[in-house]
Amino acid sequence: MNLFQQNKSPRNGGNRKKRPMFNMFWMYALIALCMLGLYYFQDNAQTKEVDWTDFEKAALAGNIQKIYVFSESGVAEGILTKQGAKELKFNTDSSLSGDMKIKTTIPSSDKVQDKIDEWNASLVSQDKPVIKVNYEKSSDLMKILWSFGPIILIAFFMVFMFRKVGSGTGGGGGIFNVGKSKALVFDKNNGTNVTFKDVAGLAEAKVEIEEIVEFLKNPQRYTELGAKIPRGALLVGPPGTGKTLLAKAVAGEANVPFLSMSGSDFVEMFVGVGAARVRDLFKQAKEKAPCIVFIDEIDAVGRARGKNPNMGSNDERENTLNQMLTEMDGFQSNNGVICLAATNRADMLDKALLRPGRFDRQIYVDLPELTDRMEIFNVHLRNIKVNSHLDVEQLARQTQGFSGADIANVCNEAALIAARNNKESVDWNDFMAAIDRIVGGLEKKSRVITDAEKYSIATHEAGHATITWMIEYGNPLVKVTIVPRGRALGAAWYAPEERQIIPTQALLDTMCGLLGGRAAEEVFTGQIGTGASDDLERCTKIARSLVLVYGMSDKLPNLNYNDSTGQEMGFTKPYSEDTAKIIDAEVKRIVNEQYERAKEILRKYAKEHNQIRDMLIEKEVIYHDDVEKILGKRQWKSRTDEIMEINKKNEEGKESEKGKKVIDITPEDVENVKEDNNDPGTPPPFKHF
Fold first, then answer.
1. How far apart are the C-alpha atoms of 362 and 364, rounded to whole Å?
2. How many whole angstroms separate alpha carbon 267 and alpha carbon 295?
3. Which of 105, 254, 404, 643 has a CA positioned 20 to 30 A from the CA of residue 660?
4. How far apart, in Å, are the Cα atoms of 245 and each of 148, 242, 372, 438, 686?
5. Which parts of 488-552 are beta strand (E)?
6. Is 461 a catalytic residue?
7. Which entry of 461, 521, 586, 608 is annotated as an active-site residue?
């Protein structure tokens, strides 16, 4: 599927009448029919050529039962009887099919008829069957067709294939056009329907992208100040954050040609094809300058050189990259050509590709924040009939860590669920069901759970809920459920806090909350089960990050053993065996401390935990308000609430400043201030507005 869908226009044939497309299977079917025809209609008769005298002897002896006279070619064929075939030494094996014939040249059809009349008179006198006669125009035409027809058909097929290959049908493909680029061209008449208004959030990224488009629209505004047009911009970020959507918006907004291509389009099995396509792409761009070239998933060809698994062999991808480096910033200038690229694996790109002069800007497109998610929801909810009481802000809080593509999927899934339940509009419950479906998987209604297993699951999930409610950096609880979904038998749903800097205590509290389920099983049931495997895996990873990455260990402080650049091969550890023993000991110590802490909290709030467990067994799903009735309000304020309060105050401040006028400072005011301060060198104070 192409990245950009072309609009129907006279240029691309969108308004033309649809004609049946030629399919190669038609040709194969025609050849198969010809082969079947040859098999069923081929002449399997045994034929011998004889002179006229032998032909006449066979006729007078009664060995010919039928004669075909071909007047135009002057040939007569006689169908032999079984006795005649034996006398003329034909192969009379029963496995062979077809007639046995003798063939001769005749003087003329009139004389042949006279002779046949004489032969029949002689046969009648001998009480033998007379010879039947058929006159045909020609006998060689069909034989010629069946003999040379397949050859003619194969020749036609070869000519057609060479013409098809030479024409490069299918977007520049074919053997003779294999070096041509497959870029999709978008211009004023053939653009996309996506604009910057359709790109919600990504405020900083949009500013830089809009500036590039503005530079192409009005270059004098920048060149008058001595600014140079940027060579390229690299969009970097996790999958689904809107990198390709930004490129679509550029194609929709720019009034210059836009060439779109994927990184994998440069890769072919033929040697030199990738470099040839790069040259052809920039050749087209120079001819259409000023224009924008967009390469999606550039890591397919831009991977760092020297990391080839072929161990030093000539790599076609490296040749393609070298050609791209030359085209972007070589001896030849590409004035008016801006290269946009997108990738989610920037750490694997070659350093020469990322330097200024090729990609002057690296625009990081991160996962959307709370306010960005609200904007994204509003964009995707425009075409969805939602309930008037739907709280979009709360939806944004519930989808922390979701990308723009995930939010679009949530909105679509909620609409599907509402339609499935025959609702007139999409409400809050539909969105919650959609989030549960996407994050946890499909609800397993058919899974049978015994009472003992249900008690253990409820104890486990109540342990998570109790501990995260009582610790400082615990994420706000949304709901707790013991309804199985996907591979999980139960789950505690949270609205994770968005922190720019994570303190040590926040990581420790996260570990304590993860271990709360296992700790509750041990404290309240006396035995542990296998349901905490995922919690233990996540907890161990956090503990190892504390020691190896963040340098938060007491015995190994301020040390980082992680290679974030990915340049090291990783065959050896960057620390000694003694250090490895210390790392293992520190990881165990941190995990054990948080596990004991979790058990201590649960023993302190055992009564409340048991109430949550019993409510879970009864209702199967409980929400934030239910837990708040048992444990009381949290004493720790949510960071999300603090951010919303700050944003609200900022908005109120902006509103209060509207309408106020700046008080002009006159020269008389300056002189008066100088006299009052008795300091001629002191500047006048600023008057606030």
1. 6
2. 13
3. 643
4. 58, 5, 15, 22, 46
5. 491-494
6. yes
7. 461
